[in-house]
Each structure stands twice: as C-alpha cells, then as structure tokens.
Design brief:
heterodimer, A: 171 residues, elongated, B: mainly alpha, 2 domains
C-alpha cells in the first residue's frame, strides 16, 4: 500500500506541473512561486515541531494511562481518550503506536475511537504549523467551536452501536 | 544579479520562515529535549533524536511534492466553478461535496491545508471549509489505509469510519450556525512584492 501511496504523491505534482508548463502563460511560474513561499513559511517550524514531538512522545506514560480506558470506565473512558488525543502534538507514527498500546492493554473501542478522532481533529502541531499561518486565528476559533463535541459524540455512538450489536447477538 | 523585487521577496521568505513563532518552536523543542535527557537518560534521548531525523528526512520530499500540488492547483483551479459548488449558496449539498472532497484528498496536512486556503480565497462557504478539513482529518482515505488499517485492524477501522461519517457535515452545520466573524489570512494579506521598498535591504545592497 505504501508504495502505491508514494507513487501517487509524486505522480500528481509531476502531472500538474507539466500541464501548467504546457500552457506557456506563466502559470507554472506563479504556481512554483506560491509553493516556494509556503515552503519557506512552513518548513522551519515543522522541523522544530517534529523534533519536539519526538521527545514528547517518549515522555507520555502510555502504560499508566491505558489502565483508565477499559470497558468498565464507560463514558469516563471516552472523556479521557478525548483529552489525551487533544494534547498529543505529533504525527500518526506516534499516535497509532500509542493507540495500539492502549488496545493491547484492553481499552474499550469507544475510548479508542474518541482518542483517535480527537487527535485527528485537534492535532496541536498541525494547528500551529499549518492552520494559523495559512488560514488565521479567526478560522481556528470557528473550527474549534464547531468540532468541539465530535470526539465525544463519536465515542458515544460507538458505544451505542456496540451495545446494540451485543443485544442483537444475545437475543 | 538579483533584482530589487526579487531580493525583497527573498527577505520576506526569510522573515516568514524564521519569525517569532519559529523561535518559540525552537525553544520548545530544546526544552523538551532537555526534559527528555534529564528524565529518561542519554540513550532514550539519542533514540528520539535518531527517530526524529529519520522522520524529517522522510517527510521533506513529500512536503515538497504536496506544496507543488497545492501551488499548481492554486493557479489552475477554476475559481468561479469551485465557489458555485461549495460557495455561500451551496446549501446542504455543498457540505456533502466538501466532505467527499476531504475523504479523497491525498497526502498529509502539507497538501490539505494549502488546499483549504485555496478554497477560502475562492469564496467557499465557512461551513464547507470546516466540513472539508474535518472530513479530511477524521475520514481521510489515505490515513485510514496507511495507519488505521495496519495498526487497528479492519473491523475497528470500518466501525470508526461509519460512526464518524456524519460528523463533518454536522461540524459544517454548526460552523454556519455559529455567530462568529471570519477573516482569512489570504484575504487580508497583500501580495508580498508590492509592499513598498524596505530601506534596510537597499542600504545593505549598496554597501556590497
């Protein structure tokens, strides 16, 4: 899968750039200018954020937290999952290895889904590296208020679906 | 020989890249490094540094590719058509289209956020913008295929996808309903080159 993904990642810019070049009206130049501007704005910050995230990931007490995410914790586990997802400032490598650790330690599906959803929505590093420079603070405010409850909703819906499923298979 | 406009553009790039928030990041990274070293010892510290460097070198080409795509789309996209699809009058259909676009957008944040900025400057509706980026974040196909599936298994990934499917549209509806003012960076910023002469840059040029 990874190699197909990589092929797409590199094929799309080549196709688009050749099309822009073939128009011969400065489209390619303008597009590249914008790409270079955004590169300069984003990459130095990204470098620092990634290095910091690597250290933070080492500092998170995963084993300790996973004790509070079991099935018996119910809605509390959903809240805890949401909060942890909110504070992890790093990419999918770290987050999914943490999620896998949680799952191995017996965390409930609802808590795991709340955790992953919360991370994907709030991912702190993404907000600072991309969202604030490219969109601005007023967009961030609007978006955060709009999505505030989604991870908890996702967790509750998972719980509901699982309960319904159990009920059906028992009766 | 670099022309004046070009030099100003380069200086603008430098100040964008190494502005105030860069140094905050820099300080944060160093602080975390120190904490890591103190609490976990030199071996864990070195392991973290090695992983970080591997991650950064792996990401750089992908970021370049993604930004090239975003730049090309920015100049090639027919804006009037886009704003009709997800603009202010697009209604519920606009939210559905934005959600679908988020699901299929390939690449990480380096492609999704520049695209979001393109949509914003093309006059997309605020609900559609929120629906798009939320959908990309929770439902993005690429992330599910590369990360969810191998790490969490097919059943879990499918459950998460189905449970989360209506959420971006809900977020878009909430964003439309919220009484907040919205001004995007793209609309406020004038073109960097036309910003007028920078006196420091000129005097430095004369000295050389």
């Amino acid at each position: 899968m990874n190699s197909v993904g990589m092929a797409i990642i590199y094929a799309v810019p080549i196709v688009l750039a050749s099309y822009a070049l073939s128009r011969r009206d400065g489209t390619f130049r303008r597009g590249m200018t914008r790409a270079v501007e955004q590169f300069a704005m984003l990459v130095p910050r990204m470098f620092c954020a990634l290095v910091a995230a690597g250290f933070v990931a080492k500092l998170i007490p995963t084993e300790f937290i996973s004790r509070f995410l079991g099935d018996e914790a119910g809605i509390t586990a959903i809240f805890i999952g949401t909060v942890i997802g909110l504070v992890i400032p790093s990419g999918p490598v770290v987050v999914f290895s943490i999620a896998a650790t949680f799952a191995k330690a017996g965390a409930a599906d609802s808590a795991l889904i709340a955790f992953i959803t919360s991370w994907t929505i709030f991912a702190f590093h993404r907000v600072i590296i991309y969202e604030i420079p490219l969109l601005g603070v007023s967009f961030l405010r609007l978006r955060l208020l709009s999505v505030l409850l989604l991870p908890i909703l996702a967790g509750l819906m998972t719980m509901g679906v699982n309960r319904a499923w159990e009920w059906i298979s028992v009766s | 020989m670099i022309s004046d406009a070009n030099r100003q553009w380069l200086l603008k790039l430098l100040s964008d890249g190494f502005g105030k928030s860069f140094w905050w990041f820099f300080a944060f990274a160093i602080a975390m490094g120190v904490v890591c070293y103190q609490m976990l010892g030199p071996e864990a510290f070195q392991a973290a540094v090695r992983e970080d460097l591997k991650l950064v070198t792996g990401m750089l080409p992908r970021v370049i590719a993604a930004l090239t795509v975003a730049g090309m789309i920015w100049v090639l996209l027919p804006r009037d058509r886009l704003s009709r699809l997800i603009g202010k009058k697009s209604g519920f259909r606009g939210l559905v289209i934005a959600t679908a676009a988020g699901v299929i957008t390939p690449g990480g944040p380096a492609s999704a956020y520049p695209l979001l900025a393109v949509m914003g400057s093309a006059g997309a509706d605020r609900g559609a913008l929120v629906a798009y980026i939320t959908s990309w974040a929770i439902l993005g196909m690429q992330r599910i295929l590369i990360w969810d599936l191998p790490f969490m298994g097919a059943e879990f990934s499918l459950t998460r996808f189905l449970v989360c499917l209506p959420l971006p549209i809900l977020a878009g509806l909430i964003a439309r309903w919220l009484p907040l003012s919205l001004s995007l960076v793209e609309e406020r910023q004038p073109q960097p080159v036309s910003k007028g002469p920078a006196p420091d840059a000129q005097s430095e040029g004369e000295r050389k």
